[in-house]
Every structure is written in C-alpha cells, then in structure tokens.
Amino acid sequence: MSAPTSSKPRVSARLAAIAESATLAVDAKAKALKAAGRPVIGFGAGEPDFPTPDYIVEAAVAAAKDPVNHRYTPAKGLPALREAIAAKTLRDSGYEVSPDSVLVTNGGKQAVYQAFAAIIDPGDEVLLPAPYWTTYPEAIALAGGTPVEVFAGADQEYLVTVEQLEAARTERTKALLFCSPSNPTGAVYSPEQTEAIGRWAVEHGVWVITDEIYEHLVYDDAVFTPIQRAVPELVDTSIVLNGVAKTYAMTGWRVGWMIGPNDVIKAATNLQSHLTSNVANVSQRAAIAALTGDLSAVEQMRTAFDRRRRTMVEMLRAIDGVVLPTPKGAFYAYPSVEGVLGRTIRGRTPTTSAELASLILEEVEVAVVPGEAFGPSGFLRLSYALGDDDLAEGVGRIQELLA
Questions:
Q1: Which residue from 90, 109, 164, 343 has the highest number of Cβ atoms inside 10 Å of its Cβ?
Q2: How many CB atoms lie within 10 A of CB 387?
Q3: Aminotransferase class I/classII large domain: from which residue to which, for each copy (predicted)?
C-alpha cells in the first residue's frame, strides 16, 4: 500500500525563499578544494587569519573550569558582559548607554535578524544601501519586511546620498540599514555624511539599524563615526549592532550584541529566550576579557590589514579594466570588473561577475565572491584577511589570467 501523498510543500515558503550565504558557500568550496590537495587561495570569508589574543583565551580556559559557567544564565546576557559593553560603548563611541539597553546575542548575525524582527511588520520597507552584506536582505525578508535597494556604484565610492534615500522613501518605509565601515565595499562614510543621513532619518521618522562591527578597522584619513553620537536624537529610533568577531579575531566564539530602546530590547530578549536562550557562558567570559582589556592587539591586527590593503589595491588596479575605489575600512576590496566582462579569457567570455568568479576559480584556483551576492553584477569582493604571501600569490594569479 503506497503512502498517502500531500499537495502541501514539505519546506515552508518562508525558509524556501532564503538563499544560502554566498560568502560562506565560496569559503566552503575553497576549503573543500584545498582539503582535496588543490592549491586554492580563498578571498571569500570575512574572517581574520589571526588567532584570538592569548589573554582572551586564558580567560575562557579559566571560565570553563568554573562550575558557575556550566549552567543557564539570563537570556539577555551576563550582567558583567552587558556592563562591559556599555563601558566599551562610552570608551569607543563617546556616548552613554545603560546595560539594561544591551542584549547579548549568538554572534552578530543573530543581532541583525532580531533587530529587524523586533521592529518590522509585514509590508514594512527597509532601505538597504547596495552593495550590501549578503545576510541583510534575507534577515529583512525573514522578519516579514521588504528590502528596497539603494545602489551606489564605484563612481560614488559606494556611498549613498541623502537624495537617493529620499527618492527611495515611501509611506511604507520603516527603517534604514546603515553600515560604516562597510562590508562588502570597505567604504566609510565621513562624519558629515553620517550626520546628514541621521538627521534625514530623524526628520522622516525612519528607524536606523546601524552595524558597527568594523568600527576599529579604518585606514588613511577615514574615521569611524557612530551615528548615534553624530545625531543624539536617534536614541529612541535606532538599534546598534556590534560584536567581538572582527575586532578581536573571535569569529568562532559567537558573541554579538544589540543596543536599543528598552521596549525593543525587551521584545528581542523575549524572542531570544525561546530561540537560543543565553550565549555560551565561556564565550561571554572571553568577551568580557576582550572588551575590558586594552586595544594593543587590535592595533597590531589593524596595521597588518592596512599593509595587505595597500598591496591588494595596487595589484588589482594594475589589471586593465578593473576600477577600484580605495577601501578605507573593514578588510575588503570591491573592484568593479565591468571593464573585464565581455572579454574572451582562455576561450571563455564571461558576461557577469558570477561567470567571471567561476572562471577565476576553475582556471587559476582563486576563490572570490561575485557581486551578485551583494547587489548588482559587475563586481567582485576580495577579503584581505589572509596571509601576505597568499594574498600576493592569489592576486598575482588573477593578474596573469586577466592580462
């Protein structure tokens, strides 16, 4: 006797609509090829190649031996960590927040999703400057919202203007996602640009969700400008997202946080209490050590990233058809390759950046992420969070292929 069949889909429409993280997919493919013995160099993952600083690891080892950390703690996070986040915000961003306004999350991605889930209803629109990090539109859609892309190309150094935001605003606009320094472009908004966008948001009652996870990674004349410090009136209609992953080379420890108005933080805490409960206590203790220590280890990493950035920019700009605004933050270069598309390379003629990325991987075994993951085609994202020798070798292979 055959089993009864159902006309209903097996997977929910909500989850079926989610695309895989393109950056993690490229990184996984590169690692799989490397494990199979191929000399692949991966520029896909946004992950520092440095070990977590010793003093942070030692704090985690001590915490693992203490039975108090073997139990549940408040879903909102350890009080000592929320106090450390508040103190760190005053130190680094220049304004005061209450520890009660902080929710500790399982990495930055959980903070991103919960921020949208806390304020977005079905039908609400979220202005999303593009190129954008691949997770943002998926998180907005999961929360029931509609992402509205506002694109700024290489000619604008990937920085959207107030005029563009206003042209995209409708009566359904609820929020703006603001990310500076930017993943994927490395663009950094100036203090004046940041203030102008913040004042526009206040004027029109638009919430700002600001992702500040790359705050310590700025170069040249760029400065990180917290939008809440630039426009204090945003305090009741903004949510700050951050974490220890990028600053302290702690991507695997999974500690992020969100700071916002008390009603929003309470709603997000209620959600998290059912979703994941508390972040692992050992990781929280490690994060306390990170945030209460000095920033000397961070400065050493920033110096290395800056050196690699200069090398990558110089090498990519030497390729005919590549246009690259100087990335001034994070650890990514985002070259426009529109001048390369349509050119025949080893018998193949890529017409999209996705096709070009596939060609680069197959022909010279270098993994890059195509622009389609972050918005329009015609771009590549390369992370320079990898060793100097691998970086020079990998970009050198691309130079040779596209010469």
A1: 109
A2: 12
A3: 39-397
Which amino acid belongs to residue 144? G
Phi then psi for residue 168, to 5 deg, are: -90, -15
SS3 content of the chain, % helix, strand, coil (to 5): 45, 15, 40
C-alpha count within 13 angstroms, C-beta hemisphere, residue 105: 27
DSSP state of 329: B
Residues 181/302, Cβ–Cβ less than 8 Å: no
Q: What is the DSSP string of 61-112?
A: HHHHTSGGGGS---TT--HHHHHHHHHHHHHHHSS---GGGEEEESHHHHHH
The DSSP code for 295 is S
Element (H, E) at 290: helix 281-292
Main-chain phi, psi angles of 183, to 5 degrees: -105, 120
Plot region of 20 (φ>0 → left; ψ -120 to 50 → alpha; else → beta) = beta
Closest CA to 46 of 179, 238, 160: 179
Q: Can you give the pTM of this predicted structure? A: 0.94
Distance CA 288, CA 83 (A): 9
Q: Residue count of the chain, please give it.
A: 403
Rounded-to-integer distance, Cα 335 and Cα 354, Å:
14
CB-CB contact of 183 with 133 (8 Å): yes
Q: Which residues contact 66 (CB under 8 A, 6 or more apart)?
A: none
Place of tokens 């990781």: 283
Strand partners, 383: 332
**What DSSP assignment string belongs to 151-177?**
E--GGGTT---HHHHHHH--TTEEEEE
What does each of the 403 residues of the chain score in pLDDT, given as a tens digit?
Answer: 666 667 888 999 888 988 887 777 777 778 888 888 889 999 987 889 999 999 999 999 999 999 999 999 999 999 999 999 999 999 999 999 999 999 999 999 999 999 999 999 999 999 999 999 999 999 999 999 999 999 999 999 999 999 999 999 999 999 999 999 999 999 999 999 999 999 999 999 999 999 999 999 999 999 999 999 999 999 999 999 999 999 999 999 999 999 999 999 999 999 999 999 999 999 999 999 999 998 998 999 999 999 999 999 999 999 999 999 999 999 999 999 999 999 999 999 999 999 999 999 989 999 999 999 999 999 999 999 999 999 999 999 999 999 8
Pairing of strands 173-179, 146-151: unpaired
